[in-house]
Amino acid sequence: MNKEEIIEALKIIVEPYSEEASALVHINENTDFITDLKINSANLVDIVLDIEEKFNIEIDNDSMAKMLTVKATTEIIAQKLEAHAG
Amino acid sequence: MGNRVVITGLGVCAPNGTTIDEFSDAIKKGLSGIRHQPDLETLNFSCQIAGKPSLSEERINQYFTPLELRNLNSTGIIYGVIAGLDAWKDAGLTIENNNEPDWDSGTIFGAGTSGIDKFRWAINKIDALEIKKLGSSVVIQTMASGVSAFISGKLGLGNQVSTNSSACATGAESILLAYERIKTGQATRMLAGSTSDSGPYIWGGFDAMKVCTFKHNHEPEKGSRPMSATASGFVPGSGAGALVLESLESAIARKAKIYGEVLGGHINSGGQRGPGSMTAPNPTAVQRCIQAALENAGIKAQEIDVINGHLTATIKDTLEIENWKTALQLPAAEFPYINSIKGMIGHCIAASGSIECVASILELSEGFIFPNINCEDLNPEITALINAKCIPQTVIHKPFNILAKASFGFGDINVCIIFKKYTHE
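YS: structure for the whole thing
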C-alpha cells in the first residue's frame, strides 16, 4: 500500500469525526487532525482503533501519541504494515 | 417571594407513548405499555414483563449525530435526550448552534445509573485484556451525569448542568431543584427531568429482591396493579420525562404556552429511623413531607383536587394511602381523587417521577383525571381508609386547580410537589 492509498483510506476513517467539509476534501499530508479537521481530541483514540481494524495492525502508546497529523499517521501505518509484512 | 415558576414545555418517552400527543391519548384511555420481554424469560427472571418505550431507529437518528450513534449503548441517554429535546421544542425554544452558550438556561436531569449495557460491555472488554478497545465512548455514556451532559451539549446550556440521583424520587426531585433555581433568580429556564435504562441489568437487582410480580407473565397488561387486592409487586419500567420550567416573567415575555405552575414542594428523609429503613418508608417523614409541601406552596389540604401517588403495586400502597390521609386530615367525603399511572407503564424507577409529573401536568392543563387500571378489585384495606369513588377507574373529564404529586425512594427519601393550573390573568 503506497502513501496515497493510505491517505485515501485515512480520509474515509476520519470523515465521521470531522464536520469540516472543505478541510476533509483537501486532506493532505500536512493536515492536522485537531487544528484543521477540528476533531475532538477525545476522538483520536477512536480513530486509532479504526486504523488498527482497517489495516490489521497494532499501534503502541508511543506511536499513538505522535498521530496528530496525516503525515505522522501515514508514516506510522506504513511502518507497521512493513513490519507486519516482514 | 422570588420568581413564580411555570411549566412551558413537556417531553416524554414512556412505555405507552413516546410523544406528548401519543402519551396523553394513552393515559386517557388507560392503555398499557407493559409487554412480555423474551430476554427476561431467557435469563430466568421471576418477572418476565416490563415497560419499555418503543422507538424506531429512524426516530433515534433524528436526535443524535452519526458519530454519537456509533457505539451508543445507553438506553437511558437515548430516552433522556429524546424527552429533553422534545420538551425544549414544545416550549417553542430553538436549538441553535451559537458560539455563546445560553447562560440563563440549565438542566437538572436525573438518573439512577447510566449506560448499564455500555458498562457491562466495557467490563467484559477489560476482563478480556482488551482495555484499549474501549475507545472514548465509555466514560461519557456511563458517567451518572451522561444524560445531562448530552442534553446540555445539544442545547448549548450555560447555566447549571447537573444530574441528581435519589432512587425512585429522582424525577420529582429534579423538578423541585430546578424550580428552586429559577425561584431564587439563579436561572431563567431549567430543563428538569429524569431517565432510566431498560433491560435485565437494571431490573435484575429488583427481581432478586422479590419486589417485582411473578404472577402475570402470561398476561403482561394485567401485571401492574396499584391499589388492587391482587397487587403482588411492581412491574419494572423505563423511559424518561422532561419539563421546561421557566420564570413566569420570561414565559409571558416570549408569549409561551403555559401548562401550569409549580407552587412549591418539599424534599425530606425518614433517616432510616423508626419504621424507616433502606427500603421501607418512615411514615412520619412521608406525612411531614406532604404537610411541608402544602405549607411551602401556601395551600390548604382541602384545595387539593387530585393526588398523583407513588403507588407502585406492592403491599406499601395501603401505607401510602394511610399517610396521605393522616397528612391531609380531611373527612372521607373531601378526600381528593387519587391515581397512579404505574398500572399502565409499571415502575419506571429513576424516571418514574418525571414521567408521572408530565402526566400530572397534562391532566391539569387539559382538565382530565386519567383512570387507574387493573384495580377493579380494590384492596379492601384501602377502601376502609378512603372512599372507592376517589379512585377513578374510567377517565374523568373535568377542569381542576391543584394537583399534589409525591414520589418516594429507597434510602427512605420523599418528595412532594404542588402543581396549579395556570389561568391566564
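YS: worth flagging: The mean pLDDT of chain A is 93.
IM: good catch. Also The radius of gyration of chain A is 12 Å.
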